[in-house]
Specification:
By secondary structure, the protein is of the alpha+beta class. The protein is built from 4 helices and 9 strands; from the N terminus they run ααααβββββββββ. Strands 3-4-8-7-6-5 form a 6-stranded antiparallel beta sheet, with no helix packed on it. It has a 3-stranded antiparallel beta sheet with strand order 2-1-9, with no helix packed on it.
Length: 167
Amino acid sequence: MSLTRRKLLGIGGAVAAASLFGLGACGRAAPVSPASRGNFEVMRSDAQWRQQLTPAQYAVLRGQGTERAFSSPLNDEHRRGTFHCAGCALALFSSATKFDSGTGWPSFWAPLHGAVGEDRDTTFGMLRVAVHCRRCGGHLGHVFNDGPRPTGLRYCMNGVAMNFIAA
Protein backbone atom coordinates (compact mmCIF):
# COMPACT_ATOMS: atom_id res chain seq x y z
CA MET A 1 0.00 0.00 0.00
CA SER A 2 1.51 3.28 -1.08
CA LEU A 3 1.29 6.48 0.90
CA THR A 4 -0.45 9.08 -1.23
CA ARG A 5 -0.69 12.76 -0.52
CA ARG A 6 -4.41 12.36 0.26
CA LYS A 7 -3.75 9.58 2.83
CA LEU A 8 -0.91 11.58 4.40
CA LEU A 9 -3.15 14.65 4.76
CA GLY A 10 -5.93 12.49 6.20
CA ILE A 11 -3.59 10.98 8.80
CA GLY A 12 -2.23 14.43 9.67
CA GLY A 13 -5.76 15.78 10.06
CA ALA A 14 -6.75 12.91 12.34
CA VAL A 15 -3.67 13.47 14.53
CA ALA A 16 -4.37 17.21 14.70
CA ALA A 17 -8.02 16.59 15.63
CA ALA A 18 -7.03 14.12 18.34
CA SER A 19 -4.61 16.68 19.79
CA LEU A 20 -7.14 19.48 19.61
CA PHE A 21 -9.91 17.54 21.32
CA GLY A 22 -7.66 15.90 23.89
CA LEU A 23 -8.13 12.29 22.87
CA GLY A 24 -5.82 11.24 25.69
CA ALA A 25 -8.05 12.94 28.26
CA CYS A 26 -11.33 11.34 27.18
CA GLY A 27 -11.22 8.64 29.84
CA ARG A 28 -10.67 11.03 32.75
CA ALA A 29 -13.51 12.36 34.82
CA ALA A 30 -14.12 16.09 34.99
CA PRO A 31 -12.62 17.72 38.06
CA VAL A 32 -14.76 18.03 41.12
CA SER A 33 -15.38 21.67 41.89
CA PRO A 34 -13.58 22.59 45.12
CA ALA A 35 -16.72 24.46 46.11
CA SER A 36 -18.75 21.23 46.04
CA ARG A 37 -16.39 19.30 48.31
CA GLY A 38 -17.70 20.94 51.47
CA ASN A 39 -14.48 21.27 53.44
CA PHE A 40 -14.11 25.02 53.77
CA GLU A 41 -14.39 27.48 56.64
CA VAL A 42 -17.17 29.44 54.92
CA MET A 43 -20.05 27.18 53.94
CA ARG A 44 -23.37 28.28 52.45
CA SER A 45 -26.20 26.52 50.67
CA ASP A 46 -26.56 27.03 46.94
CA ALA A 47 -29.57 29.26 47.60
CA GLN A 48 -27.55 31.39 50.02
CA TRP A 49 -24.72 31.78 47.50
CA ARG A 50 -27.20 32.79 44.80
CA GLN A 51 -28.71 35.38 47.14
CA GLN A 52 -25.32 36.83 48.14
CA LEU A 53 -23.60 36.91 44.74
CA THR A 54 -24.49 38.58 41.47
CA PRO A 55 -25.28 36.16 38.62
CA ALA A 56 -21.82 36.79 37.12
CA GLN A 57 -20.07 36.22 40.45
CA TYR A 58 -22.07 33.04 41.03
CA ALA A 59 -21.21 31.71 37.54
CA VAL A 60 -17.48 32.13 38.20
CA LEU A 61 -17.10 31.50 41.94
CA ARG A 62 -19.55 28.61 42.29
CA GLY A 63 -19.81 27.35 38.69
CA GLN A 64 -16.13 27.59 37.67
CA GLY A 65 -17.00 29.92 34.81
CA THR A 66 -14.78 32.51 33.14
CA GLU A 67 -15.64 36.14 32.57
CA ARG A 68 -15.13 37.69 29.13
CA ALA A 69 -11.59 39.01 28.60
CA PHE A 70 -11.12 42.78 29.15
CA SER A 71 -14.56 43.02 30.84
CA SER A 72 -13.40 43.57 34.43
CA PRO A 73 -12.58 47.02 35.77
CA LEU A 74 -10.04 45.30 38.05
CA ASN A 75 -7.91 44.57 34.99
CA ASP A 76 -7.13 48.30 34.90
CA GLU A 77 -6.87 48.78 38.68
CA HIS A 78 -3.43 50.27 39.45
CA ARG A 79 -3.83 51.74 42.94
CA ARG A 80 -2.11 50.31 46.01
CA GLY A 81 -4.34 47.89 47.88
CA THR A 82 -5.57 44.34 48.22
CA PHE A 83 -7.79 42.12 46.11
CA HIS A 84 -10.31 40.12 48.16
CA CYS A 85 -12.57 37.15 47.43
CA ALA A 86 -16.03 38.34 46.41
CA GLY A 87 -17.51 35.30 48.15
CA CYS A 88 -16.02 35.58 51.64
CA ALA A 89 -13.85 38.74 51.67
CA LEU A 90 -10.57 36.86 52.28
CA ALA A 91 -7.53 38.91 51.17
CA LEU A 92 -6.06 37.08 48.15
CA PHE A 93 -3.55 39.27 46.28
CA SER A 94 -1.55 42.41 46.95
CA SER A 95 -1.43 45.09 44.28
CA ALA A 96 2.37 44.88 44.62
CA THR A 97 2.26 41.53 42.75
CA LYS A 98 -0.15 42.65 39.99
CA PHE A 99 1.16 43.03 36.46
CA ASP A 100 -0.26 43.62 32.97
CA SER A 101 -0.17 40.24 31.24
CA GLY A 102 -2.01 41.50 28.16
CA THR A 103 -4.49 38.62 28.51
CA GLY A 104 -7.50 40.70 29.54
CA TRP A 105 -7.74 39.36 33.09
CA PRO A 106 -6.18 40.70 36.30
CA SER A 107 -2.86 38.88 36.66
CA PHE A 108 -0.53 38.46 39.63
CA TRP A 109 2.83 36.76 40.08
CA ALA A 110 2.00 35.52 43.61
CA PRO A 111 -0.98 35.27 45.99
CA LEU A 112 -0.86 36.29 49.63
CA HIS A 113 0.51 33.54 51.87
CA GLY A 114 -2.07 30.82 52.50
CA ALA A 115 -4.83 32.62 50.60
CA VAL A 116 -5.49 30.23 47.72
CA GLY A 117 -5.68 26.54 46.98
CA GLU A 118 -5.02 24.77 43.70
CA ASP A 119 -6.69 21.87 41.90
CA ARG A 120 -6.02 19.87 38.76
CA ASP A 121 -8.36 20.96 35.94
CA THR A 122 -8.68 18.71 32.88
CA THR A 123 -11.64 20.44 31.22
CA PHE A 124 -11.37 21.20 27.51
CA GLY A 125 -8.98 18.25 27.06
CA MET A 126 -5.98 20.01 28.59
CA LEU A 127 -4.26 20.00 31.94
CA ARG A 128 -4.42 23.28 33.85
CA VAL A 129 -4.15 24.34 37.47
CA ALA A 130 -7.33 25.92 38.80
CA VAL A 131 -7.06 28.39 41.68
CA HIS A 132 -9.71 28.69 44.41
CA CYS A 133 -10.20 30.71 47.57
CA ARG A 134 -8.81 28.81 50.54
CA ARG A 135 -11.65 29.92 52.83
CA CYS A 136 -14.82 29.43 50.74
CA GLY A 137 -13.62 27.32 47.81
CA GLY A 138 -14.77 29.87 45.23
CA HIS A 139 -13.18 29.45 41.79
CA LEU A 140 -10.89 32.39 40.99
CA GLY A 141 -9.09 31.45 37.78
CA HIS A 142 -5.98 29.52 36.75
CA VAL A 143 -2.23 29.70 37.30
CA PHE A 144 0.29 29.33 34.46
CA ASN A 145 4.08 29.13 34.40
CA ASP A 146 4.62 31.98 31.94
CA GLY A 147 4.69 34.89 34.40
CA PRO A 148 7.39 37.39 35.33
CA ARG A 149 10.13 37.13 37.92
CA PRO A 150 10.53 36.44 40.74
CA THR A 151 8.10 33.46 40.62
CA GLY A 152 7.66 32.92 36.89
CA LEU A 153 3.96 32.35 37.58
CA ARG A 154 0.88 34.09 36.18
CA TYR A 155 -2.19 33.89 38.38
CA CYS A 156 -4.82 34.76 35.77
CA MET A 157 -7.88 35.69 37.85
CA ASN A 158 -11.46 36.54 37.04
CA GLY A 159 -12.03 40.11 38.19
CA VAL A 160 -15.69 39.40 38.97
CA ALA A 161 -14.50 36.90 41.62
CA MET A 162 -12.71 39.64 43.55
CA ASN A 163 -13.24 43.02 45.16
CA PHE A 164 -10.51 45.64 45.47
CA ILE A 165 -9.85 47.55 48.68
CA ALA A 166 -7.52 50.53 48.27
CA ALA A 167 -4.73 51.04 50.81
